[in-house]
Write a structure and sequence with these properties.
The complex is a heterotrimer of chains A (about 400), B (about 130) and C (about 240).
Chain A: E1 6-7, H1 14-40, H2 55-70, H3 72-78, H4 89-109, H5 117-122, H6 129-152, H7 160-183, H8 196-222, H9 229-259, H10 264-273, H11 276-299, H12 303-330, E2 339-343, H13 357-380, E3 384-385, H14 390-397
Antiparallel strand pairs in A: 1-3
Helix pairs in contact in A: 1-13, 2-4, 2-7, 2-8, 2-12, 2-13, 3-4, 3-7, 4-6, 4-13, 6-7, 7-8, 8-9, 8-12, 9-11, 9-12, 10-11, 11-12
Chain B: H1 2-20, H2 22-28, H3 46-67, H4 76-83, H5 97-105, H6 120-125
Chain C: H1 3-30, E1 45-50, H2 59-67, E2 83-90, E3 96-102, H3 110-114, E4 120-122, E5 128-130, H4 140-144, E6 151-152, E7 171-172, H5 178-181, H6 188-195, E8 201-205, H7 212-219, E9 235-238
Parallel strand pairs in C: 1-9
Antiparallel strand pairs in C: 1-8, 2-3, 4-5, 6-7
The chains are: A mainly alpha (about 400), B mainly alpha (about 130), C alpha+beta (about 240).
Chain lengths: ~400, ~130, ~240
């Protein structure tokens, strides 16, 4: 283990400056969008009284879920003792923090009164899952920061396994909390299922690893670090298992709904006649986010296929969260069983939603923030090993 | 070295002292307009109102909203009824009772994003 | 008068009320509380709506929005609606009905459970309200409400009523006209329905055995919307 050598990235190239410039521009656009939404009110967005959570929440939930999943590589190294993953653990911890920061920034900037964020820190309703999550998120930052410290500081290395275990348990609870935001909504048929908590956990494994793989490959390539096939093939197999697990949980979720007569209409909407949501489910979530990555991961051994598969998982994941959050709200709430319902408040009809530019800019700004924080951290502290070539890894693991 | 530092500090103190002189301050920032057109006395002595009006409003606000205690004397509505300008009917605006003093003290208030700043009579007359 | 003295007076008023209570309680509850008296757990305000008397009018909606200063910006998807008329048609028989729907003032309100800051709360007398001073505009309560009864204020509001503060970026819903209830009056929708509509709506204290609403609930059939959720709503319907 002592033989792994970490180095900051150089960060003086034109490419690095250009990357930060692009990400910075996207962050500024996101902030401008948030200010515009705040100034004019949310009526300038596609959100309405029927679709109260829109694109910003899709990005925020995706990033928060992916954040906890990005920590998995570190967990595998310190909790499950796989030495091969140890050189990747620091980057894994870093991404967990930056992705969460990006997601939370989006969530907070979309609030109706973001300037009152302090109220959320001083007034708590402990029955609210949101209130639990405030503790889970801040706790996650603190625990992962300490965990990273045990990895960086040689004298603290011996505590790394225990911190890793704590971080692993915490991240499972955190994702359970995120899934329960929706799972505990008894009033809405598309949510209201305890299955959403474990579904969110496997989603986090998959999304987080996909982002980790892409950042790792980009980081190694752009800084001229060797990245051996042994490591990549491990990650490739792992991603395949996670993608398949997500498909399994999605199948179980829909099959339970198909068994329950009360939920038949909902399934007809989601799987068959829901228009954009049905299309996003089958083409985005299942095909691009599930079947295609599986074929690419297990069908070929090329690095390009791995990159394509990881991109597919991310695109499919965004589609999945979109269908869940927006499709789940668009589907009319059941107030009067056996009746056709009509009103001025759009009762009984599928709500329409068209994302607006400010919303998308805010969401993309969150992604840019996460990536920019990562890029800066890589330059400031030695997160990446000097080499991940097969020989170096084997020597380190031995 | 020490002498230069002492000199700089002395100069800064002198400038700060000059800025604190009331006459000069009034020249730069307009003094608040305190024109009360109705009633002889407020619900508490002036000194206490100046110091504590925010606590009184805050306490009354929570009592009213959460417990339904609508003590009329201490309600924001009652404040506005006396303190709104007879001309505009409002506590806001350039010479508004609330806004002119808060502008002077550089303390922003959030009350009137939701609450009506108008006297009841005026409020009722609006379409 | 300083705040402390005010507090003593309030306690005095409460003590007097308590001392008089045994004999006067039933009569007293039907009338307004004194302004110094806090809303009491002994009461549970609610509505009983007989939809067989509810016709194709919207007197309740107009009256509510007039009373509470709810103005339209001609953007139906984002405009606030505290009460709405819902038309029902049986999918098999075509039997048509119409009814007013608003916050159901649940005993176990999901909006209160999910609110992270406690801005959504239930008053002692059962009225569910939003404390807009602590609402951060997260809209989780809108997600949680089974009745779609809540609106998010999507744009700047002006010309508010003195008794009904409203502002951009917070969530709001029917308050059961709490400002009227506190002075002993009935909600604006109930008054308008009795005056201009079919007289379908009744307001009262569900706990008060001598109230008309209590007697009717005791002797006539009634139902709750989404009774399966066991939220024990304060708004009950007849003829549904």
């Amino acid at each position: 283990m002592a033989s792994i050598q970490y180095r900051e990235i150089d960060g003086r190239s034109g490419g690095y400056a250009a990357l930060l410039a692009v990400l910075g521009a996207l962050i500024i656009a996101g902030l401008a969008a948030a200010w515009t939404m705040e100034h004019h009110g949310h009526h300038i967005t596609g959100m309405s009284n029927r679709i109260v959570w829109g694109i910003p929440h899709v990005f925020a939930v995706f990033l928060i879920v992916a954040a906890s999943g990005a920590l998995n590589v570190a967990s595998i190294a310190s909790v499950f003792g796989r030495e091969l993953y140890k050189p990747l653990a620091r980057l894994s911890g870093l991404l967990a923090v930056t992705l969460l920061a990006g997601g939370l920034a989006v969530l907070v900037l979309d609030l109706g009164r973001p300037e009152r964020l302090i109220v959320a820190m001083t007034h708590y309703n402990f029955k609210s899952i949101f209130a639990w999550n405030i503790f889970l998120y801040t706790g996650f930052f603190a625990i992962v920061a300490l965990y990273l410290w045990t990895m960086f500081e040689r004298r603290m290395n011996r505590h790394s396994a225990r911190m890793g275990l704590l971080a692993f348990v915490w991240r499972l609870v955190l994702t359970t909390g995120t899934g329960s935001i929706f799972g505990f909504l008894v009033a809405r048929e598309p949510y209201d299922s305890a299955l959403l908590a474990p579904l969110f956990i496997v989603m986090s494994f998959s999304f987080g690893l996909a982002i980790f793989v892409l950042v790792l490959m980009a980081g190694c390539r752009w800084t001229g670090r060797a990245l051996g096939d042994v490591v990549l093939n491990r990650l490739r197999n792992l991603l395949g298992v996670f993608v398949a697990t997500v498909l399994y949980f999605v199948a179980v979720h829909h099959l339970t709904n198909l068994y329950i007569a009360r939920q038949h209409e909902l399934e007809r909407f989601l799987l068959w006649e829901g228009g954009i949501y049905t299309a996003l489910f089958w083409l985005g979530q299942i095909l691009i986010g599930g079947i295609l990555p599986l074929a690419l991961l297990y069908g070929t051994a090329s690095r390009r296929a791995l990159v394509a598969a990881a991109l597919g998982v991310i695109v499919g994941g965004l589609a999945q969260v979109y269908v869940l959050i927006i499709g789940g709200q668009a589907y009319p709430q059941l107030l009067f069983p056996g009746k056709e319902v009509r009103s001025s408040f759009f009762d009984g009809v599928v709500a329409s939603y068209a994302p607006s530019l400010p919303e998308v800019a805010l969401g993309v700004g969150g992604v840019a923030l996460a990536l920019a924080l990562t890029a800066v951290a890589l330059k400031v502290l030695p997160f990446l090993p000097r080499s991940l070539a097969d020989g170096d890894i084997a020597a380190a693991a031995a | 070295m020490t002498r230069i530092a002492a000199g700089i500090i002395a100069a800064m103190l002198a400038v700060a002292g000059a800025a604190d002189t009331p006459g000069r301050a009034a020249g730069r920032v307009a003094l608040p307009v305190i024109k009360i057109e109705k009633g002889e006395a407020c619900v508490a002595p002036t000194a206490q109102m100046r110091r504590d009006h925010m606590q009184m409003l805050l306490q009354q606000r929570d009592l009213t909203l959460h417990q339904g205690i609508r003590e009329p004397r201490f309600s924001l509505k009652n404040c506005i009824d006396c303190h709104a300008s007879r001309k505009t009917g409002s506590v806001l605006g350039k010479d508004g009772f609330c806004s002119s003093c808060h502008a002077y003290a550089a303390v922003s208030i959030d009350c009137f994003e939701c609450h009506s700043p108008l006297r009841q009579a005026q409020a009722a007359a609006r379409p | 008068m300083n705040p402390d003295r005010r507090q003593v007076l309030a306690w005095g008023a409460a003590a007097t009320a308590a001392a008089l209570a045994p004999g006067l309680r039933l009569v007293e509850l039907a009338q307004a509380r004194s302004p110094q008296e806090a809303a009491s757990k002994l009461q549970r305000w609610g509505l009983l709506i007989d939809i067989t008397k509810c016709g194709e009018c919207d007197a309740c909606v107009t009256a509510c929005h007039e009373e509470n200063g709810i103005t339209s910006n001609a953007r139906p998807a984002t405009d606030a609606q505290w009460i709405r008329k819902v038309s029902l048609r049986d999918t098999r028989t075509g039997y048509a009905q119409t009814l007013p729907l608003m916050c159901q003032h649940c005993e176990h309100p999901p909006c209160v459970d999910v609110c992270p800051t406690g801005a959504s709360f239930k008053r002692a007398d059962g009225i569910v309200l939003v404390d807009k001073h602590t609402c951060i505009g997260c809209r989780y309560c809108v997600m949680a409400c089974p009745y779609a009864a809540r609106s998010f204020v999507h744009e700047t509001v002006s010309g508010q009523k003195a008794d009904v503060p409203r502002g951009k970026g917070t969530v709001e819903a029917c308050t059961l006209c709490v400002h009227r209830v506190d002075r002993g009056a009935t909600p604006a929708c109930v008054e308008a329905c009795g005056r201009d509509g079919g007289g379908a709506m009744a307001f009262g204290d569900l706990n008060d055995a001598s109230s008309a609403i209590h007697r009717r609930l005791k002797s006539e059939p009634s139902s709750q919307i989404r009774a399966d959720l066991a939220l024990n709503t304060g708004v009950r319907y007849q003829g549904l």
